């Protein structure tokens, strides 16, 4: 096992030891007209050990035998994998090992979809953290990312070398939506009898007037407005009217209700049932979207910190951490990120796409390295030259 040189760099917050990993793809052809089933087989190679460390401003790095940094920005490379060909995953696990401890005696099989789902989930968390902290905010992107995290399917993964199953983050809000109470409280029934509008005191707007006939149309499922019969929208509307809840779930309900009701209802694939009306996206609703994003980011990170344990370093008489897997190390490095100072942005070189850390205030840095910047400049020059010659 390589050792970190003394005083190599200050402020190492944790380290993690692992092994290189072999990864092959199995393609099972079922029938001529069916898409073949793809699975990945992975096996640890204990003769090739790997050491990782995390330090402020450096992120998660891999340390070489001589104690220097062998590869920096492991997280940025990991989250660029879902958009890259399979061979990139093979080379990533050869360099850094698998996300979880795995068997060294035989290949273990993983569903390709589940594996990329887990990586995409880290990517969405990092992207959402960046998006909510960018000075110029893209609210469409923030909405897409928060919805895909909040309503992500549950995934469980277990390897022979793991003592317990890994569960992807499950947001408690999803449970609230399952069986919302559609029965109105008594004071609302009186209101419905006396007036045309419910007067709502919610966390987005004070004194919001919600049409009673519209409410009845939505919960009864007989509305003719596009999207109003969507079952998720119906549950959110029911929660909005009836659910007291804790502060977080109340904020999520109020945000979702107003966004879907006033901007537009979205389907499971996040496309709108009809043309969205962005006049509904007020400054109050934007603030609610940022707050909800922060709740979701917090839940995603907290759910992945279970494999991290405090240990006391008796040599240095100082606190340190033990990390159970590379996935935990990746989340731990997000946990330590200060997004007000640093953000992960994707490299604009289309052949690279790696996420890299930049100062939150710098809006001009677009490439992860000078090599990527030069490459794009050269490509542009060649393209232009070809166009000129073609004329
Ligand atoms: Zn790059």
Describe the structure.
The chain has twelve helices and 13 strands. With 391 residues, the protein is an alpha+beta fold. It has two domains: 12-135 and 153-169 and 304-373, no CATH class; 174-292, no CATH class. The strands form five sheets. Strands 1, 2, 3, 4 and 5 form a five-stranded antiparallel beta sheet that branches. A two-stranded antiparallel sheet has the order 6-7. A hairpin with a 5-residue loop joins strand 3 (59-63) and strand 4 (69-71). The longest helix has 22 residues, at 112-133. The radius of gyration is 25 Å and the shape is globular.
Question: What's the quick description here?
Answer:
The protein has 391 residues and is of the alpha+beta class. It has helices spanning 74-78, 86-96, 112-133, 139-150, 172-176, 186-194, 212-220, 231-242, 247-263, 283-303, 326-335, 370-390; strands spanning 12-28, 37-55, 59-63, 69-71, 108-111, 156-157, 166-167, 197-200, 208-211, 308-313, 318-323, 342-346, 355-359.
Oligomer: single chain
The count of strands amounts to: 13
Poorly predicted tracts of residues: none
Helix/strand class: alpha+beta
Q: Fraction of residues in helices? A: 25-40%
Q: In DSSP terms, counting alpha (H) and pi (I) runs of 4 or more, how many helices?
A: 12
Mean pLDDT: 89
* Spatial separation of the terminal alpha carbons: 60 Å
Topology order in helix (H) and strand (E) letters: EEEEHHEHHEEHHEEHHHHEEHEEH
Rg, Cα atoms, Å = 25 Å
Identify every distinct bound molecule in the structure, by name, code or SMILES. Answer: zinc ion
Query: How is the biggest beta sheet arranged?
Result: 5 strands, antiparallel
Overall 3D shape: globular
| Tally of individual domains | 2
What percent strand? 15-25%
